[in-house]
Amino acid sequence: ESKDAGTFEAxxxxxxxxxxxxxxxxxxxTLIWEVKPQEITLTxxxxxxxxxxxxxxxxxxxxxVVETSLPEHVIVKxxxxxxxxxxxxxxxxxxxxxxxxxxxxxxxxxxxxxWSIGSVTVDVSDAxxxxxxxxVYDGELKSVxxxxxxxxxxxSVTYENNSSFNAGQFTATATxxxxxxxxxxxxxxxxxxxxxxxxxxxxxxxxx
Length: 208
Known about the structure:
mainly beta
């Protein structure tokens, strides 16, 4: 006998009741018998502890199956693709199993979840050139720059033609770029990628 599921072999041996009886034929018998596991059907897909996209914050984020949403005797065997740190789209795969050989899942045992981490939107709407637009030549280096950006931790600024010792009119270019283009986006997009300003370095006594 057995209370667990499985395949078993029963054996039976025949003995005479007294010494003056002789048995002929097969006195040893075997029987293969089976207790089938109980089938468990998931009427609904398991729930995940995920409602909406995470925001990138430099930390790892994890999604998992809510175990209380599973029927009795059903457990999560493995979960893959459920941990990430950088912004992007991901797919988690959970494989279910039973906690005993006496039960078996009827039907699907793998369930997927598409989840994501959103990039941080960086606001550079305050990008503007410093007020000075013209200088008087005095032999010293003159430069123009952008005002300090509130998003300075997320962006870098590079300049072209923004400095000169000599008098004249120049076109300065400031290029704003994300330090982490994977996890950040610029709120106002490429329109603020480059900013151009005309700068005049005036002459002294009509000469250079």
